[in-house]
Structures are given as C-alpha cells and as structure tokens.
Design brief:
about 240 residues, alpha/beta, Nucleotidyltransferase, domain 5, 2 domains, five-stranded mixed sheet, 5 strands, about 40% helix, about 15% strand
C-alpha cells in the first residue's frame, strides 16, 4: 500500500510490480485496500507527529473529481512541514473557515502567530469569523502576500505528481480517502515522524506495520513483499 501512496503509479502498475515479486493480487483489491486503510493510517499516525510552528502558509489547489474541479486546501508551516488538508467542492469563505477549524483541532498544531495566504478574498472573512468564535487567537496576523506562499505552492507538486497517473478521481469520497494517504506518506517522506528518517524506507515500512500491529519481518522487505492487510487486526507476533 505505501508504494502507491508514495510514487506516481497506477493500481495496474502496482499489480504488475507485485506479480513480478510472486504476489498475485488484483488492482481492484489494491484500490479497496487504499480506500480502507489510508484514512485509518492518517488517524493512527497523528500521535507521532511533532508540533508545527506558529507560521502557517495556506493555499488551495485543484484536483479533478468526475471531470469537475474540486479544491484542495493545504497548509504547511515555515519549515515546509504539512499541517493539514481539506477537500472541498467550493472555494469560498465557508470552505476556508472549515479548513482552519479542522487544522486547529489537530493535536500537533498550535494557534498560529501569522497566517500567510494569497489574494483570495475568502480568507480575511474566514479569519475574522474564527476570531469572533474564539477558535483562533485574536492576535494572529493575516498576511496576504503571494510570493511568501512559495513554500506551500511548491509543496502542491507532491500531490499533483501522484494524482496525474490516475487522471483524476471517480468520486468525492474516493478522492478524500486517497488524498489522506498521499498526505500521510508525504509527511513520512519529509521526516515529520519522530525518530524515523524520511529516506529510510525500511524503518518506514516497519513503523507502518507496527501501527497496524502486523508482524514486520526484515526478510520481507524489500526482497519479498508479503501483503498482510487481512491480518491487520491480529496481535503482534512475539
């Protein structure tokens, strides 16, 4: 599963890669695994994320869902560490407010000192409403300056690179679950997990296996991949 969420390949590409390693699994099965386990991976990884800093860079990009453009709100801090994301059918003040409420509710986030956005007029309205509701620190400063948002705009490329081979998504909920997996593995590759290096593929594979309480055997990676999704709820091997 992590391969699909980390590299720009299709489900059929992954099916052939696994077949080359002696693992017979259909691409439709891989799709169902992603839909089931990607959102769960996002939830289980949260306690292992270090706190973000107080300088947020927020922007939205678009992805195609059933041939229509949907808006993906994303935020990173000044170090480029992912804060949160939200897929929305609309690009307005209500969607922006919903995104900020979601991001502020995460255990690894802090109330930001500054929020840097582009010239989208929806952001000032959303920030004002959040301050009135007491959800956002009243001294948080909004900066509408496009060139300061280069960090998050460059970070959009990670998502675009992964979405491109599949030519979009077939449904809103499918897109939301798959994007959750993309964002989780982006955090892993950025080195956001405590004590896990972003380039250490073996450590990442073992960490994800332990999250799902699957016995992680070093001999299975990378020489032979044993798909253990059906055993995800079994107790860890002694």
């Amino acid at each position: 599963m992590p391969w699909y969420l980390m590299f720009p390949i299709t489900y059929r590409d992954l099916e052939m890669m696994l077949a080359d390693r002696g693992v017979d699994v259909a691409h439709t099965t891989l799709f169902r695994w992603i839909q089931s386990y990607a959102p769960e991976l996002k939830e289980r990884i949260r306690p292992h994320l270090p706190p973000s800093n107080g300088s947020w860079r927020v922007d939205e990009t678009y992805v195609r869902v059933k041939g229509c453009c949907m808006y993906l709100y994303r935020a990173v801090d000044s170090r480029g560490q992912t804060i949160d994301f939200l897929l929305s059918a609309k690009r307005d003040a209500e969607a922006a407010k919903r995104f900020f409420r979601k991001a502020l509710g995460q255990p690894h986030t802090v109330n930001p000192r500054t929020i840097t956005v582009d010239k989208n007029p929806a952001y000032p309205c959303a920030i004002e409403r959040l301050k009135k509701d007491g959800k956002l620190w009243r001294f948080s400063r909004l900066r509408q300056c496009k060139f300061l948002n280069n960090i998050v705009e460059q970070d959009h490329r990670r998502v675009k690179r992964l979405v491109r081979p599949g030519l979009g998504f077939g449904g809103f909920h499918t897109a939301r679950r798959t994007l959750a997996g993309y964002e989780v593995m982006a955090r892993v590759r950025k080195g956001q997990l405590r004590r896990i290096d972003g380039r250490d593929m073996r450590a990442q594979a073992i960490f994800i296996a332990e999250l799902f309480q699957v016995a992680a055997r070093s001999a299975c990676y990378p020489g032979q991949l044993r798909l253990a999704a059906s055993s995800a709820t079994q107790p860890r091997a002694a």
